[in-house]
């Protein structure tokens, strides 16, 4: 059935929510963008009524169907979750799941479920498979290789319950990833690292020799990676990546492939350079205070990096005290120096920075 999006929006839409969403990402379905413009359920009902008047059904694409069926919960008007790929707008009465790998489920407004490829049964069993021949589906879009691992982690209860024919199809088509831009690869990889079973998904990708195609080393630091993920999942995706890297050279190779942001690249470099720092100071917080004190980076950014380092080094008990601590302010400033007329212009900035 043809699905059409028509413009029937409120005269005073929720532009605040709409701009917040689009400033954060463009990688959402058209109906998700429409959702951001609506204030209430009544506005969605009105929109659905216009669809029905013209002989169309309103269907909203996204992962909400699988989440609803798996958890047996009814979601509120919309819900925001920031972890990994779980950022989504969720409606409580109109859902559709159209996964390239998991079948097709359709919720109409009246709650009727249409299941074309036995997708509901797969969800209940925790099975993640391509619709049709996996080789053909992968060759249609090689990014589906990464999407497979992302959806597998969302749907399956057993992180090792992969179908051998799927893994074989992926392994035999890895060269196709070279045609995918680094930015698109990083978007998917970022979601995998921020989702469930991130350790198991990454190790499985390593096992089938995916890493070199992603810019990661063929022989990564799995000891450090497993130590970190066995201790905590509550770190940024880039911190997990840093654990896989031995050196800055490996980070530079990764950056050439994935086109990381400055923030992400600097975070990984910071972790790599300081993860083995030790201090004989009887006050364990002093090591991290000094990192902030002598950093040339913006203080707010450096604080975030240091908190990630604390989690990485299994020092999370220090985070609360670190948040309370404030950088000391040196009593001498530019105005005081200027009063004595000893220095001015650009030299004044150099002197104040020195202090």
TrEMBL record:
Spans traversing the lipid bilayer = 89-107
**Residue intervals of the tRNA nucleotidyltransferase/poly(A) polymerase RNA and SrmB- binding domain:** 164-214
Swiss-Prot/TrEMBL GO biological process terms: mitochondrial tRNA 3'-end processing; tRNA 3'-terminal CCA addition
Q: Name one Pfam family in it.
A: PolyA_pol_RNAbd
Q: Among its keywords, does the record have Transmembrane?
A: yes
Q: Which GO cellular component terms are attached?
A: mitochondrion
Q: Which domain of life is it from?
A: Eukaryota
Keywords for this protein: Magnesium, Membrane, Metal-binding, Nucleotidyltransferase, Transferase, Transmembrane, Transmembrane helix, tRNA processing
Q: State the Gene Ontology terms under molecular function.
A: metal ion binding; nucleotidyltransferase activity; tRNA binding
Q: Which PANTHER family match?
A: CCA TRNA NUCLEOTIDYLTRANSFERASE 1, MITOCHONDRIAL (PTHR46173:SF1)
Q: What is this protein called?
A: CCA tRNA nucleotidyltransferase 1, mitochondrial
What is the organism of origin for this protein? Diaphorina citri (Asian citrus psyllid)
What are the top taxonomic ranks of the organism? Eukaryota, Metazoa, Ecdysozoa, Arthropoda, Hexapoda
